[in-house]
Amino acid sequence: MRYSPTDARATTRRRRAPWAAALLALAATAVVHAAEKEEAVERDYDPAPPAPAHQSLDEMRRKSAGCVSCHTETDSHTMHASEAVRLGCTDCHGGDAGVEKAADVALDSAEAKDLMERAHVLPRYPKSWHWPDSANPKQSYTLLNREAQEYVRFVNPGDFRAARQACGACHADIIEKSIRSLHATGAMFWAAAAYNNGILPYKRSILGEAYTPQGTGAMLEAPVEPTEEMREHGILDKIVPLPAWETVKPGDIFRVFERGGRIIPNLFPETGLPNVLGRIQTLEEPGRPDIRQSIRGPGTGARIAVPLINITKTRLNDPLLWFLGTNDQPGDYRSSGCSACHVVYANDRQPTHSGPYAEFGNMGRTQTADPTIDEDESGHPIRHRFSSAIPTSQCMICHMHQPNMFLNSYLGYTMWDYESDAPHMWPEEQRYPSHERRREVLNRNPEGAAPRGKWADVDFLKDVWKMNPELDDTQFADYHGHGWNFRAVFKKDRDGNLLDADGDIVPRDDPDKFDKAVHMKSIHAEVGMHCVDCHFEQDSHGNGHIYGEVAAAVEIACKDCHGTADAYPDLRTSGAASSVTGGTDMSVLRNPDGKLRFEWRDGELIQRSMVNPGMEWTLSLVKDSVDPDSAHYNPKSARAKLMSEDTGSQHWGPDVTAGNRAHKDEEMECYSCHTSWTTSCGGCHLPIQANEKTERHHYEGGITRNYATYNPQVARDQIFMLGKRAPYKGGKVAPVRSSSALVLSSTNANREHIYIQQAPIAASGYSSQAFNPHFPHTVRKTETKGCSDCHLSREGDNNAIMAQTLGYGTEFIDFIGRHLWVGEREHVEAVRVTEWKEPQAVKGSYLHRYAYPDWFAEHEANDRRLEVAHGHGAGTTGCLQLRGEYLYTAGGEDGFRVFDVASIDNKGFSHRIITAPFGPLGHDAHVDTENATCMALPTTQPVHPPRNQGELMRETNKEQPFHPLYNYAFVTDAEEGLILVDINTFADGEPRNNHLERALTWNEGGVLDGARYLTVGGHYLYVIADAGLVIVDIDDPLEPRHVRTVPLDDGRAVAQQFRYLFVTDAEGLKLIDITRPEAAALVPEATVPLADAHRMHLARTYAYVAAGGDGLAIVDIETPREMALVGTYDADGKLTDSHDVVVGTTNASLFAYVADGEGGVDVIQLTSPELQPNFYGFSPAPNARWIAGRETRSPALSLSHGLVRDRAVDETGGQVAVFGRRGSRPLNHQEMRELYLDDAGEPWYVEDQPPADRREEE
Amino acid sequence: MDRNRLLSHGTLAAAAAAVALLAGAARAAGEGDGDEAVHLGVASCASSTCHGRVTPDEDSPLALNEYFVWSKYDHHAGAYKTLKGDWSRRIAANMGLADAATAEECLACHADDVPEERRGERFHLSDGIGCEACHGGAGDWIDSHYGPDASHAANLEAGMNPTEEPVFQARLCQSCHVGDDNRFVTHEMMAAGHPRLRFELDTWLANMPPHHVEDADYERRKGTTAPADRWATGVAVAAGGYLDILARHLDADALVPELSLFDCHACHRPMDTDVRRLAEDRRMMPAGTLRPQDQTLRMLGVVTAVRDEALSDTIERGNRALHGAAAGSPADFRTRLRALREPVARARETVTSAPLSADERAALQNALLRTAADARFRDYADAEQLYLALQALAAQDNDARAARYDTLFRLLESERRFDPRRVAAEARRLLQER
After folding, report:
1. What own/partner pairs with CB < 8 Å and gap ≥ 24 does B368-373 have?
2. Interchain pair A54, B146: CB under 8 A
3. Residue A593 sits at the chain B interface (C-beta within 8 Å)
4. Fewer Cβ atoms within 10 A, N terminus or C terminus of chain B?
5. Which residues of chain A have pLDDT under 50?
6. Nearest chain B Cα to A582, which residue?
7. Which residue of B has its CA nearest to A590?
8. pLDDT per residue over A544-589, tens digit each?
9. B67–A83 C-beta distance less than 8 A
C-alpha cells in the first residue's frame, strides 16, 4: 500500500506505550473538531477483496500473520461466536497482514510504529480520527462520509459503507435489509417532522437516509414494487435523500415569511438568486406588508425549516446506524452499521439496562485482551467479539428521545424536567457560559438549559445516578445519552402520593420511600427482559421492505407469547410486519448460549434470556388467567377479558362468547389496559438562532448558520388517552401519546426575535401538537388501567380522567409562554412572565430560583414586579385569545378585532402590538359590532382547515375531514347575539387578503340577548346570556340551532369539562349536567356559594375561580356533583378584584395567572417540589404562592388561554391535532359515547373492584 | 403407530426412487461410531446463515432448513424433554431413580450424552437427539464442512458420520430403537413403565421426517437407497444386533435372564385367557417357555430366501432350535445362539450385496404373505414387522394399492386383542386377491 506519510504523525495512547504518555498533552491539543475543516491527505489505496465465505486454514492464518505480531491476543479472532467461521484479520479490516513485527521489537518503539503505518490502512483525515489512536472519535458524524471507504472498512468493517464487502459473503440479505430498515433510514423522523410541521404534505414518507459506499446520499428503491395491499401496510416505494436541508420550503408560514414590504437587507447568502442583496425582491407592489424581516418566503433564499434543523443539526434521536455514536458521554458509546448493535460497549451500570455488561461501567471502556488497546480510554468496545446478546443499554443509545422512543418508559423513566431535586442539579452560583463553552456543551447535549446546569460537565453527569440515595423528589437513571437526565416514574395515586405494591401510601418522609414505592418499569424489564428478548431478528434488521412508520415495521405482538383468552400462544409472530405466510416461528429460536429461547414445560411457557445466560422466566398465559380451574386464575383479568357488551348487567364469564365481549381482541390492543403509564411530552421549544454556525450531522456535513437548541417543556407521566390505530394495525383502540409537538422561535442575525413560541400547522391543516397511537411499553401486571380509566365511575369521581382519556385535554399542561396576554378596560397588553433563556422559567418561580439565582434575587429585590409589558389601546376587552401570531379580541363597542402580535418580542420594533402591518386599505382585521362582549376560538392551537382537502389528504394520507366550525371565530355581542367570522386568512401565508367580515349573525328569537361569554365544546356553543346558559348547536356553523336554555341568576362565565358545565352567576359556582345537551340541567345540590364569582379555569380536579374581592377560589371538582370549596387565596391582600384566571404548566410546576382588575395581573405558583412534594400527581392539591405581579395600564379584565397542548379532539369528535401514522385518528363521537352511554343515550357506570364475583353468585 | 404417516411414505419414497445403490458400506460396517470429537451443540448448526433457514434455499445444494425441520417435526428434538414429563417421572420413581433427566441409562438414548469433556460451550443435553448425535461431533470439521472446497468424502474423512449409508443408519438408529451394548431398554425399565420399542429402519427414517431431499445432486454426492433395500438392511442388521445383545445378556449372572429380549406376550396376558397355541409354537417349544423376540430373524429368513433358500433354511432351523433350547439349559441356549450368528451374518451379506430387483421384490412380497398365511408369524411383533415390510415394498414400487393392507393394519391396533389367526386369514385373503 502506498501512502503519503505527511502529517499523520499524531500519537497514540496505549496501555503499554510509555512514549505515548509524554505526548498525551500534544494529542489533546491536536484534536481537530469534526466541525473544523481538515485538509484531506492524498492517498492511494490498494483495493481489498471482499471477505470470503470460506477459505483454508492456511489462507486464514496468512491473513492474520502480521497483525497478531502486535495484536498478540484478542477476544475472538473472527469476531464470531461460531466455530464454523474462518476469517483472518485483513478479510474484514483490509490492511497488510504481510507486515510482521519481530518478537524482539518493542511495541512502543519507532520501528513498531513504522510497521504499523505500513500494515494499517491510513485515514485521509488523521486528525479528525486522532490517528493512530483507535478509540471512536467523538461526534464524528459525517466524517464517515468524507473518509475513504477503505479506511472506514479498516476502523469498522461493519459500517454499512463497508459491510457488503466485509460481511456480505455470508450476510448479504441481512445487510440489504438492515440498510432499508428504519434503524438505518430514520424515515419515520423525516416523515413526522416534515408532515406534522407542514413542510411536506406526504404522510407516506418520501425522505430517508442512506448512503453509497463513497458516502454520498443515496435513494433507496423498494426491492419489490409495493402492491396496493403492501402500501396499505405502510410499505414505501422509495425514499430519497435530503442532502441540504435548506432546500425545503418553510413549512411554518409565519408573518416573517410573507412576501413584500420594507426589506431589511439580508445578512445571509442567498442561494439560487442572481443578486446576493436580493434587490430583485424590492420590486414590490403597493399594499404589501411594510414590516417583515428578511427576503424570506417560499422560493426565496436559503430557507430553513426549524423542525428539519432538528434532524440535521440538533441531535435528538440521531445519529442512527449510518454514523458512529458520539462517544462522548455515558450512553453514547457505540460503533456504526452492523457493529452499532452487535458490538457491545459499556454505557450503563444498571443491570436491568445492561445485563452482565453492567459491571464494565458506563464510560465506554474496554475489557479486551488485545494489548494494543488502552483500557483507560473511552470509545472502545468491551470486547472484539460480535454478540446477539445485545443489552437494552445498547439500544438506548439511540432510543432515548422522550416522545418518540419507548425505552425510557420501558425502563420506568422519563425525561427530567429541571425541577425535581433542582438543588442537586443546578450550581449554587449562576453560570454565565461563554459562547465557546455553550457550543462545547450543546455539541454534546442539545438542551438549551444544559450549559447552565451541573450536568454540563461529563464528570458530574456520569455519576448523577450515584446521587440517588440523597435525593428527595426522584431517582435518576444511569444512562445519559445526549447528556440528558432521566427521572424514575413511581406508582402514584391521583394526588401524587407514592404507592407501594399493595396500593398503600408510602409517606414522603420515609427514608426508603423510593424502595417501597413501585418503580413503574415494564414487567418485562422487571423479570429481566432486554429489548432483544421481544424484538427478534426481523424487528431489528427489517424484512427488506422500506417502511416509514415504526408500528408498521414490527412483527411481534402480545398474543404471540401470551395468547388470548381463548387460545394459548402459537409462538408465531402476528404483528403488522409479520409474514403473510404465518410469521416467524419463535419456537425454534435459539439464544447466544445455544438454548431454545422458548419452551413449553409442564403446561407453562418459559422464555430464556438472550442477554443473561441462565436467566429464564415464565410467561403469563391469558387463557389461564381467565380459567377458574387454573392456578393462574385472576378474577380481575377474567372480568376484564370476559366482560359482555351488555352494559346494563355487566355480566361476565366463560359463557360470554368472543363476539359478545366488550373488549374484543380485534378491536382493542391488549395494552389499552395493560399500560401502567404513558409518557406525554407537552412539547418542545426550538429557538433557532441565526448566529450560531454549526455542523450538519447528515449527508455532506459542512457548517452553516442556524442552530436550534432542544427544550422539552412539560414531560408528564399521568396523561392517558385513547385513539384508533392505523388500518395496518387493525384500526384498534390504543393508547395515544402526544408526540414531539413543537413551538418554534427564531432569532435573526441582529438577535431580533422575529417570531417566538409559534406552534406550526401540520400539512393536513391540523395543529402540529402531534399525537399518535402507540404501545407505551409500560406493561405491568397490577398497575394496569382499570375500568374507570375509560368508563364512568359509579362514584362519579373521574370526570377529569375521562376528559383526558377521550383526548379533550384537561387544561392542566397549557402553555402560557413568554407573555401573559391581558384584556383590559381600554387596552390589550402582553406581560412578560418568563426568562427567554433556557429553561424559560417563570419569574419568581421555584425553577427560577435554582436555574437563575442571580436573576431571581434581582426579581425579589424588585418586589417581584414583572418589568416588561407591551400594550395597545383597545376597546373594553372582555375576551381575548392568542393564536399563532395574532391576538383575537372582543373589544366591546370596538367590535371584534385581530391584532398582529408577530413582533411581540422583537427588539427591532418599538410598537410590538399593531392593528395592521401596513395600511388599513390592505389589511383590515376588524369586524364592527355593536357590543362585542366575548369571543372564543374552537381551539387555541393554530389550525388551517383549507389545507385538509383533496385526494392527497383524503385518500393518500387517509386524513379525516375537519369539522367546518374550525374555520371560524365565535363572537358574542350583547346586542347582536352570535357572530361568526372566518379567520382562515391568518394562516394562509398570503398577506393581501387579510380582510375580515361576518360570516353570520344569529340571535334567533332574542335567545342571545345580553350574550356576554361563551365556550366552544365540539359543535356546541355554551353561551352566557341574559336568559342564562344557552346551548347552541353549530354542527352546521352557518345554520345554528338553539338546543336549550338553563336559567341562571346573572350568569357570568362557563367552562366545560366532559359531561359537565361549570357556570358562575350571582350565587357562585354551579354545575350543569350536559351528558345529553338537549336535556341539560342544573345540578342544584352542587353549588359552591361565592360572593362575586367571575371567570374560571378548570384544571383537572380543581376549578380556579376568579372570585372578585376573595381573590382566587379553589374548588375541588374531582366529583363534580360533590364539588366543594377548598379555600380562597388573596395573596396576602394583593388580589382584590379578580376577574379572570388561567392555569398552565411550566416544566414540572403548575401556575395560575390572575387578571385582578385594578390590581393588574398576578402570577401564583400552585405546585412545586417545595410547595407540594406530590407535584407529579395527576392532580396534586395546589398550595398557592404569589410569585410575581404587575399593574396594568387599565383594569385587567380577561386573560388569553394558553396553548392547550393535550387536546387532540373536541367533545363531539372533531379532530384538532395531527395524528402520526397514516389512517390513525382520535375516537369519533360515536366511539366516545359507546364508552359511557348505552343505546338509549343514558350513562352507565363501572366499579374497578367488582362488588362480588358475579360468576360465583350465579 | 401413525398410519397416515406410514401411508404417506409411498409418495415420499417414490420421489427418491431410482436405482438403488448400497453405497459407502466400507466405512459403515462394524467399527462403532468412533466419534471422539467435541460436540458443539445444536445451536452451532442452527444459525440462519447455515442450517437454520425456515424455507428451503432454492439456490443451494442443501435445503439449509435442516435445523428447522428437525426442530419442528422430528421427535428426536424432544427426546430429552420426554424425560422431564410426567410419564418419565413415574418411570424414574418406579425404578428408584432420582430424575430420569439425569440418569445415565435414560440419557443414553434420550440425549446426545457425550462425556462432559466433549461438550462445547453451546452444547446442551436438553437438545435431545441433536445434530451431532447422528452426524458426529462437529468439533473437528465445523469450519471445513462447507464452502467451495468441501466434499462429502472430505467431511467423512474429517470425522462426519456417513448417515446416508444404510448399514450405518441401521446401526445408528437401532442402537437406541433396538438396543446395543451401550443402550438398552431393560425389562426393569419396561416394568417401570417404559413403552415397548418398535422399529423398522425405512419407515422410521421416512417418518422422522428426513431433513434432506434426495434429488439428483444429492444422489451424485451421497447416493440413494431404495425403501425395500433399506428395509432389508435394517432387518439384517437388527437380527444380528439382536443376537449380540441376547448373547451378552445371557452371560449375566442373574436369576432370570433379561426378559425384554423375549416376547412380551409370552407372559403378559390376563390369567384367564383362553389360550390357543399356534401349531408353529407347539412345534418349537413347550408352553410356558420364554419366547425370544425373533421377529427380525423371521423377516431375515424370508428375505434371505429370495436369494439363498438354503441359508434361509439354516436361519429358520436355527431359530427354531433356539426356541426349543429356551426350554432347556442356559448352556444349550447359548450353543444354539452361537450357531445362529454365522448364518445371520452371512445372510446380511447376502441381502445387502445388491439392491433387490423387481422380481425379487415380487417374490419377497409373495413369500411374506405366504409365511403369514401359514401362520408362521405368530405374535404381535411378527405381524407388525410384516405390515411394515409390505409397506416398504409397496412404497418402493409406488404401489397405489398399498391401501389393501389397511385391514392388516387394523389388526395391529390393539396388542390386547391381537389374534394371529386373523393375520393368517387376512394374508390368505390378500394372496387370493392377487
Report:
1. B368/B302, B368/B393, B369/B427, B369/B430, B369/B431, B370/B427, B370/B431, B371/B298, B371/B302, B372/B423, B372/B424, B372/B426, B372/B427, B373/B424, B373/B427, B373/B428, B373/B431
2. yes
3. yes
4. C
5. 1-35, 270-274, 278, 280-281, 283-288, 293, 299-300, 1254-1258
6. B54
7. B43
8. 999 999 999 999 999 999 999 999 999 999 999 998 888 999 999 9
9. no
